[in-house]
């Protein structure tokens, strides 16, 4: 792999990374997009179902819904900024540039959009394409960038570490086909997605190993709100991780309801908005009812399920799920509400380092994210960061290559260590936490990090660096959770269990 220079280096190829690349390229900057993906479905954006929220005639209602879903913790300046830019960004990028075929009420392009409603939204404002909006957005986006003369996309390529000198980031060390080389950049933008690999059950792809958060933190960038890990309440409760798939909140927006093993509809007992309560409330209620009665199902019998949601019906059929009898569901890790701390243009605390999308903490989500705002946040902040990142001169700095002289890793090393990490996070840093469990989690994760670090000093294997990143990120999440003694949104604290003195 050869050394490279570029005006803007973008790490990640979901909606946030693609938006950044497009905006930077529009200024005339040369852009290099680095992605571990070898296919679009390797990105979390591909799996986004519900859609993308847009600002209607009453922007203040949208602002109020975001803040309410966050349990009152969202940064209102960031929320106002998102809502203000939402419509223009969607029209410019998704409609006029990419021609995303959003569903319309009559089925023709000239008809009004068929806006959906999801949990914690007070009105219909969700643009969607069936229940698989992400893939209909990301495919055209990647094709558009592939044809852009100013954009180079490097697939199956991982950023191992940031190149830093005196508080400024100058690019990253890249790995492809076991070869490592620096890519020097005027500005670097992290758009690496979430942290699903830190948990056994997640709606994220396997490659969501917290790379951006870990690389930024190791380089000295500030992180914030990492304790707020959102669990989606309605993921299919398959036996294996690979069986897990999301059942969009749009189902409940159209009338689907949650029932326990006794057939009871239980959400009215937990929240005034019942099945359309904020995600954190619904997820904990589902877990409680599953523990109390045995199982929880999503009842879609009152919907025209196969006709209205053909993509989800097909997923059920692939797994042999008799959806007419109720779909077995359980909470699964879904979204990191915090991340690398950024301003309204995606700037981090390190000069010329930006972060966008799920790996960034913009302040929009606070302690809990409102449904269908993740694609929107990635789009809006991606456009802003791309424009802000352009225009910096590329400077070469010393970029010593890591030592890769030792033998290959022991068989199963990374797989075994990742499973250990997931057990710790599931048990102690999951849907509910307590102080004693968080102490045990931090101790266990510190030991694991020490074991992993001993190998990363002399090896550059990709799966090892992914494990390092997942371990660093998990430790940061556990540390933030331990330091925050206030139970809000996704960060739900319970009293530590009593220990028998005998």
From TrEMBL:
<keyword id="KW-0274">FAD</keyword>
<protein>
    <recommendedName>
        <fullName>L-aspartate oxidase</fullName>
        <ecNumber>1.4.3.16</ecNumber>
    </recommendedName>
</protein>
<dbReference type="GO" id="GO:0008734">
    <property type="term" value="F:L-aspartate oxidase activity"/>
</dbReference>
<keyword id="KW-0662">Pyridine nucleotide biosynthesis</keyword>
<dbReference type="InterPro" id="IPR015939">
    <property type="entry name" value="Fum_Rdtase/Succ_DH_flav-like_C"/>
</dbReference>
<keyword id="KW-0560">Oxidoreductase</keyword>
<dbReference type="InterPro" id="IPR005288">
    <property type="entry name" value="NadB"/>
</dbReference>
<comment type="pathway">
    <text>Cofactor biosynthesis; NAD(+) biosynthesis; iminoaspartate from L-aspartate (oxidase route): step 1/1.</text>
</comment>
<dbReference type="Pfam" id="PF00890">
    <property type="entry name" value="FAD_binding_2"/>
</dbReference>
<dbReference type="InterPro" id="IPR037099">
    <property type="entry name" value="Fum_R/Succ_DH_flav-like_C_sf"/>
</dbReference>
<feature type="domain" description="FAD-dependent oxidoreductase 2 FAD-binding">
    <location>
        <begin position="7"/>
        <end position="375"/>
    </location>
</feature>
<dbReference type="InterPro" id="IPR027477">
    <property type="entry name" value="Succ_DH/fumarate_Rdtase_cat_sf"/>
</dbReference>
<dbReference type="InterPro" id="IPR003953">
    <property type="entry name" value="FAD-dep_OxRdtase_2_FAD-bd"/>
</dbReference>
<feature type="domain" description="Fumarate reductase/succinate dehydrogenase flavoprotein-like C-terminal">
    <location>
        <begin position="418"/>
        <end position="495"/>
    </location>
</feature>
<keyword id="KW-0285">Flavoprotein</keyword>
<dbReference type="GO" id="GO:0009435">
    <property type="term" value="P:NAD+ biosynthetic process"/>
</dbReference>
<comment type="similarity">
    <text>Belongs to the FAD-dependent oxidoreductase 2 family. NadB subfamily.</text>
</comment>
<dbReference type="Pfam" id="PF02910">
    <property type="entry name" value="Succ_DH_flav_C"/>
</dbReference>
<dbReference type="InterPro" id="IPR036188">
    <property type="entry name" value="FAD/NAD-bd_sf"/>
</dbReference>
């Amino acid at each position: 792999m050869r050394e490279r220079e570029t005006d803007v280096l973008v790490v990640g190829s979901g909606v946030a990374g693609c938006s950044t690349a497009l905006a930077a390229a529009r200024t005339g900057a040369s852009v290099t997009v680095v992605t571990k993906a070898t296919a679009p479905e390797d990105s979390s954006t591909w799996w986004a179902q519900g859609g993308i929220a847009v600002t209607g005639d009453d922007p203040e209602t949208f602002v109020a819904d975001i803040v309410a879903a966050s349990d009152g913790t969202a940064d209102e300046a960031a929320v106002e900024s998102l809502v203000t830019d939402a419509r223009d960004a969607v029209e410019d990028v998704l409609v006029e540039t990419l021609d995303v075929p959003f569903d319309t009420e009559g089925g023709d392009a000239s008809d009004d959009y068929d806006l959906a409603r999801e949990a914690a939204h007070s009105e219909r404002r969700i643009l969607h394409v069936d229940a698989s909006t992400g893939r209909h957005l990301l495919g055209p986006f990647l094709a558009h960038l592939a044809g852009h003369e100013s954009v180079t996309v490097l697939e199956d390529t991982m950023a191992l570490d940031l190149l830093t000198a005196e508080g400024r980031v100058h690019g990253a060390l890249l790995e492809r086909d076991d070869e490592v080389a620096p890519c020097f950049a005027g500005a670097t933008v992290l758009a690496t997605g979430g942290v699903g690999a830190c948990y056994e059950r997640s709606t994220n792809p396997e490659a969501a190993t917290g790379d951006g958060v870990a690389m930024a933190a190791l380089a000295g960038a500030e992180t914030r709100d990492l304790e707020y890990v959102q669990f989606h309440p309605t993921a299919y409760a398959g036996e294996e991780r690979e069986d897990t798939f999301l059942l969009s909140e749009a189902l409940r927006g159209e009338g689907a309801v949650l029932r326990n093993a006794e057939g009871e509809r239980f959400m009215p007992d937990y929240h005034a908005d019942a099945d359309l309560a904020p995600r954190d409330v619904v997820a904990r209620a589902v877990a409680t009812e599953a523990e109390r009665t045995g199982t929880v199902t999503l009842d879609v019998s009152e919907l025209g399920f196969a006709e209205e949601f053909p993509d989800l019906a097909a997923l059920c059929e692939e797994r042999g799920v008799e959806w007419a009898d109720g779909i077995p569901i359980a909470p699964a890790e879904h979204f990191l509400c915090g991340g690398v701390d950024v301003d309204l243009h995606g700037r981090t605390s390190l000069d010329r380092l930006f972060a966008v999308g799920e790996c960034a903490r913009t302040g929009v989500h606070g302690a809990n994210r409102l449904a269908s705002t993740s694609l929107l946040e990635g789009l809006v902040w991606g456009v802003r960061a791309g424009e802000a990142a352009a225009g910096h001169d590329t400077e070469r700095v010393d970029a010593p290559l890591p030592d890769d002289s030792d033998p290959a890793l022991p068989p199963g090393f990374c797989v075994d260590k990742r499973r250990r990490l997931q057990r710790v996070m599931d048990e102690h840093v999951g849907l509910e936490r307590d102080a004693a469990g968080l102490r045990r989690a931090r101790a266990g994760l510190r030991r694991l990090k020490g074991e992993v670090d001993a190998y990363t000093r002399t090896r550059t294997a990709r799966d090892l660096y992914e494990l390092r990143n997942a371990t660093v990120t998990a430790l940061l999440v556990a540390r933030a959770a331990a330091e925050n003694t206030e139970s809000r949104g996704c960060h739900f604290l319970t009293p530590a269990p009593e220990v028998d003195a005998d």
